Amino acid sequence: MSVLKTFVLGATGETGKELIDALVSNKAFSKVVIIGRRKKIEEYASVFEGFDVGYCCLGTTHKKSGTSGFVKVDRDYVLKSAQIAKQGGCKQFHLLTSQGSNKNSWFLYPRTKGEVEEGVAQLGFEKLVIYRPGLLLCDRQESRPLEKILQFTIGSLDWWRKVSIPTNTVAHAMINCSLQTASNQQPVKIVLENTDIFNLSKIHEK
Predict the structure, then answer these.
(1) Domain-located, residue 25
(2) What stretches pass through the bilayer (predicted)?
């Protein structure tokens, strides 16, 4: 197995934290770099050079950033980062979006996620994997009372992981997928829904 160099966007989020922990303990990766948000990402293009794999767990909320701020981070910033990474030689890009992503949706959240999926797909990565998890189950430090209630209720009932999934499960699925060898040399686009992510996280477990 070749040793890979990777970067992570959105490492301060709950899934990003789990991903970093899993990457640094995995011998398949020789270099793991956390790239934080910058106001003018174009001025930092050199930061994205020389990576084999890029993971993007970046995201904010409408409540925290407002409509324009949400779109700027979840669509525009992610897309620009992916463009620069591709120009820097990155071959794989793993993008975390959300269950229900749809560029034609009337609702802001799924529409924005669908738009960024389409934009990144047009960049031509050798391997693009889009992850669409349902409700993320985690012990979030940020206070979100309603989300905690939903996590407890849905997480307890969703035994088959149809609509919810732990953040560490998502992280392991992302790593497992990045280590799978493509069967051909053509650009590959893979879209993984909640159950697919759950199943993929178990592939390398013994």
Answers:
(1) yes
(2) none
Instruction: Select from 186, 51, 197, 90 the least CA-distant residue to 137.
Output: 197
Q: Give the pLDDT mean for 123-151.
A: 75
What proportion of the chain, given as a percentage, has pLDDT over 90? 68
Q: Among 56-70, 122-136, 149-163, where is mean pLDDT lowest?
A: 149-163
Residue 161 pLDDT greater than 50, yes or no = yes
- Kindly state whether residue 205 falls inside one of the protein's structural domains: no
Residues of the domain holding 159: 4-200
| Mean pLDDT value of segment 11-21 | 95
Is residue 120 a part of any domain in this protein?
yes
Enzyme catalytic residues: 109, 113
What is the length of the chain? 206
User: Total structural domains in the chain?
Assistant: 1
Residue 206, in any domain of the structure: no
Q: What is the CATH number of the domain that holds 20?
A: 3.40.50.720
Closest of 204, 181, 172 to residue 192, by C-alpha:
172
CA-CA distances (angstroms) from residue 201 to 70, 117, 128, 131, 171?
A: 29, 22, 17, 12, 8
